[in-house]
């Protein structure tokens, strides 16, 4: 029996399910969890969705269908069947890791190449553009009705993890067509999820871009461009507004690797990395305790940006 069939079987037998997203939640992890939650809820399953960490849910994600199924982290019951969605490792569950570990049937659904599996049932497909695609397979196996609400949640993961379909595989375009046929407002959700910022975002971006440094000798001479967003911006306009800076920095063709350092509190950083072609970021992220995909990865650290940049230069 394949992993997808096993996940379907587990879900069919569970009277109650806890679904968990990763910390610093994005549209793929939340959309995947809510799509699955909606389908289970309609089938009479007692379902709760937990979002770990201190970061508030970005406004746009709170408007997805099914967001009412999100339960504040302290109120999560923790069912015997637990599912981690889009989490490359158990660490990504942050303060809800105990909820996952306490389950008796722990399911991992993910598409990160760095994910070695940390559940009793691991459904991990690094060839999938997003976790939402894998959830769609599960929903089809489960016999769920992929109506406009479920489709909207899946589309949210698909459109964001493919960078508005820039690097989408043929199969992902086919899935997009199916979701749009189900009634998803594609242009509307794309604007909401990817092209909407608060006014203060412009000043933050100006500040971040002014900080940009090019290090041609880094990554074996393939080059690094990096920028920093300091912690004061988090309080001013919200943590999620800094997530888009990497999409500007990574357009610089002078370097193979683009990195954005985002300070969540003084000296505490989360790092987003992108590579254009030759550099495999998975080992780089793993060396710093993180994970991801060959061309998109990340990690967190406490300390000085200069030290981390120095490690890239000797890499
Ligand atoms: Mn994802």
What order do the helices and strands come in, and which of them pair?
Blueprint: H1 3-13, E1 16-20, H2 27-42, E2 46-50, H3 59-62, E3 70-71, E4 81-85, H4 97-101, E5 105-110, E6 121-124, H5 131-142, H6 148-161, H7 170-181, H8 186-194, H9 200-210, E7 213-215, H10 218-221, E8 224-229, H11 232-237, H12 245-249, E9 257-265, E10 268-275, H13 281-287, E11 291-293, E12 296-302, H14 305-313
Parallel strand pairs: 1-2, 1-4, 2-3, 4-5, 5-6, 8-9
Antiparallel strand pairs: 7-8, 9-10, 10-12, 11-12
Helix pairs in contact: 1-5, 2-5, 2-6, 5-6, 6-7, 6-8
The chain binds manganese (II) ion.
Protein name: Bifunctional oligoribonuclease/PAP phosphatase NrnA
InterPro entries: DDH_dom (IPR001667), DHH_sf (IPR038763), DHHA1_dom (IPR003156), Oligoribo/pAp-PDE_c-di-AMP_PDE (IPR051319)
GO molecular function: 3'(2'),5'-bisphosphate nucleotidase activity
Low-confidence stretches: none
Helix content range of the residues, please? 25-40%
The ordered string of helix (H) and strand (E) elements is HEHEHEEHEEHHHHHEHEHHEEHEEH
Largest β-sheet summary: 6 strands, parallel
What is the count of DSSP helices, taking H or I runs of 4+ residues?
Answer: 14
User: What is the SS-derived class?
Assistant: alpha/beta
- How many beta-strand segments? 12
Gross geometry: globular
What is Rg?
A: 19 Å
Rounded mean pLDDT is 96
In terms of quaternary structure, the protein is single chain
What small-molecule ligands were found?
manganese (II) ion
Going across the major beta sheet, what is the strand order?
A: 3-2-1-4-5-6
Quote the beta fraction: 15-25%
Q: Span from first to last CA?
A: 42 Å
